[in-house]
Amino acid sequence: MDNVVASLSKKRRRDKLELQEPSANKDGGYENFDLISRLPDEILGSIISLLPTKEAARIPILSSRWRHLWRSAPLNLVIDYNLLLKRSWKERDCTAIISKILAAHPGPARHLSLRSICLHNNLYARFDGWFRSPALNGLEELDFYGRNSQSLVPPSVVRFVPTLRLASIGGCDLSRIDIAPTLLLPQLKQLKLYDIAISELALHRLLFGCTVLESLDLQSIHGIRIVRIVSLTLRSIVVYVHNQADMVELIIEYAPCLERLIQLGKEGPRTSRVIAAPKLAVLGYLTPRISEFELGTIIAKEIISISLTTSVRTVRILVLDSIGPNLDVVVGFLRYFPCIEKLYIQSHLRMGMKNVRQYDTLDPIECLELHLRAIVLKTYEGKRPDVNFAKFFVLNAKVLEVMKFGVCGNTCNEKWMANQHRRLQLDNKASRDAQFEFRRDYDSYSFQYNKHIHDMWVLDPFDRSLCKCCQLVS
């Protein structure tokens, strides 16, 4: 009995210390002052909901003040590959843990990510049961992947549509889900669909129901040849096509808020038409594999021949894939997008490309005179076609601030750079303040893969210098 009384007394003293007022010490500081624990439960719950699942579940051991908070905070359940590798877990371990967590937490839920567990036939019933769990009431973010584009999706997933703000769904067959014309997703702002099968009608209905959608990411969409987009709210569109049998044509009929259009992949879409996007500021990744690209009155065929009647002055960032690199083609784009501030070039060297072009001061290029401040050249080899291409900008870009060279191979040493300095005539640069940086190019495809491509707070989604995990050549 004495032991029980002593234990209770010790507990009361510990809890009192956690809640007592701060006491000043002789240095003017404070002792025993836990600012975080003094925050209201609602704020603490929000903080916990942002933590990884493992760390959030450990919160109760920090303080008795925190013991009830994990269950009262919105659930953040993420089962990812890093967790599997660290714990050497197998699929059956994960499914048991997920079921246990959903049974213990009363809800609501903020984030559910099951990317590392494939939705195959053996787990269909288990996924359906998880999606029906009360712990997932009010779910805001959903991320899961089936085994392939033939995997069926449990119909219970539809119950999340009133509250979802972010959805990433892959490896599934959405063509078998009844997407009614009246389906509404009133909170959804980001939607990513990858490696899925869906009909043109179903996709149209899905997008029509996303009344506040800002970011759309379509990657390897099967069963659909033409994608038509009409949206009053979309600000960012990314399209990735890997197979010629997939999406062939992208038509943006009306997108008054669209700021970014980024096309990735090896095969297209073969034809892209932007009919009305008056705020478009970021455009790429334009490659010779695109048979035809239309933006207003601009028509580009395989990024070789271009025709237009008027220019587009809204585009500030342009990403091009150029074989050669072809200086005449790139200069042509600069005339048609006269307000470009950042130019990214993924070059594919072709010997014999002369790139000898004199700048006609009687026919100035507005972009070079007033706007172009940054150029990034990837897969730069320092051979004659490369040098002549880059030298044109060194000698004629009058407001250039920085030019970055992503150098192929192991040639980027001091001797090689001194030789490039001479050949590029950097001492005769048109912009007095221009800086030139040579770096070994470890990632020749970093234009195509960027985790911040939809983050609208990043003005330039291709600028990797803003993120430590992305700092390669940017």
TrEMBL record:
CDD domains: F-box_AtFBL13-like. It comes from the Eukaryota. Residues 33-92 form the F-box domain. Gene3D superfamilies: 1.20.1280.50, Ribonuclease Inhibitor (3.80.10.10). InterPro entries: F-box-like_dom_sf, F-box_AtFBL13-like, F-box_dom, F-box_dom-containing, FBD, LRR_dom_sf, LRR_FXL15/At3g58940/PEG3-like. Residues 1-25 are annotated as: Disordered. Signal peptide: none annotated. This is F-box domain-containing protein. It comes from Triticum turgidum subsp. durum.
